[in-house]
Structure formats: C-alpha cells, structure tokens
Description:
Blueprint: E1 2-9, H1 16-27, E2 33-40, H2 47-52, E3 59-62, H3 69-77, E4 84-88, E5 92-93, H4 98-107, E6 112-120, H5 136-139, H6 148-154, E7 165-167, E8 174-178, H7 179-184, H8 197-207, E9 211-222, H9 227-230, H10 232-249
Parallel strand pairs: 1-2, 1-4, 2-3, 6-9
Antiparallel strand pairs: 4-8, 5-9, 7-9
Amino acid sequence: MKISGSIVTYNNADTIKKCIDSILEYTSGKNYNFKLYIYDNASSDITPEILSTYSDKVKVIYAKENKGFGHGHNYIIKRVRTDYHFVINPDIYLEQDVMGELAEYLKNMPDIGLITPKILSIDGTEQPIPKYGPSIRYSFIGNLPGFKWLRRKYSRQDEVLSEPTDIEFCTGCFFGARTDYLKQIKGFSSSYFLYCEDSDLSKKVLADGKKIVYYPDAEAYHNWNRENTHSVKAFFRFIRSLLIYFKKWGWQF
C-alpha cells in the first residue's frame, strides 16, 4: 500500500518542524510506503530554511508566489501516484499512526469519499470543528452573542460520536481519501484562495454520492489560532470565500 501526504506552508516556522517530525515518526517502519510532499507558498520567514533540512526525507516544492491553499495541494495531488492521499495542515502533529489506520479503514469502504479523524487542541480537548455544511444560521447567526448553542449544534458537540459517523463537512486541516478519487474530482476548487475550499470540496463529494466520515478512533492535534478572528484581512477573506460558497451552492438558512 502506498500513502502520500501533502502540506501547504506559508510562514509556518513556529509549527512546521513539529508537524513534519511527528508525521515522519509515526509513518516510518510501517507495512506501507509513505511519502510526504510540502508546497511552500513563497514564505517570507524562515520556513524555507527549516524545510531545506528535510531535503533527504521530504519532497519540497518552492513556489515563486502564493496562489493559495487549494492550489498548492492540487499541484501535489495531480502528481502523486499512490493509493491514498492525506491533506495536512502545517499546524497538525501526530502521536499515533493516524494515516495508516484511516487508509486501512478506507480499504473496505468504497462508498467513502473523504475521512477525517478526531481533531484535538494541544490541551487534549476536542476542537469544535463543524460537522454540517455552512449555512446562514451556523456561519453568521451562530457567531452572535446568545447563539453559542447554534455553534455547538454546528459541531455536534452535545452528541456522543464514539463510532465512525457520516458527516456533511470535512475539515481541510486533516483528511484522507483515495488518491484516484481526489484526482477524479479534481481536488479543490480554484475559486478560493483561502477558507471554505474544504466546505466546497465536501459539498462536491456529497453531490457525487459519496460519504464523508468522521473517524473518532484516530486522533490528530491541531495548533489552531483562529486567524480569521484575529486579523481584519483574514476576516474579510473568510467572508469573501463564504459568499463564493453560498453563490455556488445556494443560500441555505
């Protein structure tokens, strides 16, 4: 079995070393072949210098300009020749062989399009990642004072999801799929520079009649800083991506 993973970086010097080291640690010496690819979106910090120290273990592509999250992953997806491929954020780190376990689960489940593990914060608590697709009430009303219950519903926090469960949204911070299937659906849409490309991909997979599965028996840690709530530029980029998504898929309440 051949497994590949892709990471798209942009000024991720604070997290990328821990991310790479953990992936290499938990994919080495297994009963499958693993290759990690990293696409650097013209980082201006020391990320490229850090990546250069892994040149004998990881395939690194250095872009001349930043064309966005989806573009970098699509570049790699088009070129890999593996059985299963994983999209990984540069602020993810592992403490178990997540990719091997998820790939084994996918082997006998041809109806699954995307699979994602339980995503934990660095303190070990589960992150409230959405499990439904974006809508006006979840994406807008849920952020208003007094409507936190909507955000909890959005992420299904009050449910006990202890078994593999069908969901509507697959987070772009960490997920896996059959490589051939990602190629078939042409990966991420080029309409998005950053944000909502995972929502769009999820919608495309469901429209294709495939399932998205949340697999809680495997866990990954996500050093998440919610950039879209701390930066005005990121916030407006997030809103723009949401508008593109709603225009394409409909304004669902």
